[in-house]
Amino acid sequence: MAINYNGDISVVLDMQHRTPGNLRAFVQATLRSIRTGKSSDVRFSSTEKIEPVPMITTKMEFSYKDGKDFVFTNPENYETVTLSAELVGDDKNYLVENAPVTVTFVEDKAVSIELPSNVILTVTDAPEGVRGDSANNVQKAIIMETGITVQAPLFIKTGEKIKIDTRTGKYMERA
């Protein structure tokens, strides 16, 4: 959710409702300013009013990396949006060409991206498993096309496509 706080539009990253012992209830929130990009912890009392700001989500596709920035395209009208590496964060490890993402906008400014729950990536480097090393569920470190390292079973070979959970970064199955 996005709110208007102290004359600045901020995105709510985290929120907790607390009711300590004999004190009044309050809401502890972590806000990130859209204008400055800085995060802050704010405490709201139960009597304070906040003004929500409408957020618009759009389905987009990852197009290419431009230096440190990432370019996304709307497949309906082919408009492009360039997002900074700080905004994309660790999600860059799962972005391949034409990967679908959901981009959230507040007042025509992109504030966050959301990946699908899993992605299919190609294995670029998978060392051979050691024979006789299969007493139980043994895994090996493999490198994906985006550069991320994932633990996968011994039978995975270079060039195969596998499905990876984007929330945990773990191997799911062959694709």
Topology overview:
Layout: E1 2-5, E2 8-18, E3 26-33, E4 39-45, E5 51-53, E6 55-66, E7 69-73, E8 80-83, H1 85-88, E9 100-106, E10 109-114, E11 118-125, E12 139-144, E13 149-153, E14 161-165, E15 171-174
Antiparallel strand pairs: 1-2, 1-5, 2-3, 3-4, 6-7, 6-9, 7-8, 9-10, 11-12, 11-14, 12-13, 14-15
Can you describe this structure?
- With 175 residues, the chain is mainly β.
- The chain folds into 3 domains: 2-53, SH3 type barrels; 55-114, Beta Barrel (OB fold (Dihydrolipoamide Acetyltransferase, E2P)), CATH 2.40.50; 118-174, Beta Barrel (OB fold (Dihydrolipoamide Acetyltransferase, E2P)), CATH 2.40.50.140.
- It contains 1 helix and 15 strands; from the N terminus they run E-E-E-E-E-E-E-E-H-E-E-E-E-E-E-E.
- The protein has one helix spanning 85-88; strands spanning 2-5, 8-18, 26-33, 39-45, 51-53, 55-66, 69-73, 80-83, 100-106, 109-114, 118-125, 139-144, 149-153, 161-165, 171-174.
- The chain has a 5-stranded antiparallel sheet, with no helix packed on it.
- A hairpin with a 2-residue loop joins strand 1 and strand 2 (8-18).
- The model has no long low-confidence stretch (mean pLDDT 82).
